[in-house]
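Page 47, continued from p. 46.
Same chain as before, 73 aa.
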Amino acid sequence: MKQYSFYQYALTKRNENSEMGKLAELIFSDLSFPKFTDDYHTLSDYMETEAMFTQPMSVFDDLFDSYEEWLKF
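Result:
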């Protein structure tokens, strides 16, 4: 199993022409984003209360689900 933070995974999606790619770009630009965690609740709380992103939380959920699947391989 891979050992990467969610942030590291999100960076791999930055150039995608998709909603997840747009979110990944915003995550990259956010200097306060919690870069060293893989905890869904920590990340979700940050996205809901601290981040200034306009994407729906469903995009974050999809990206996090993709991250969890990616970790398995």
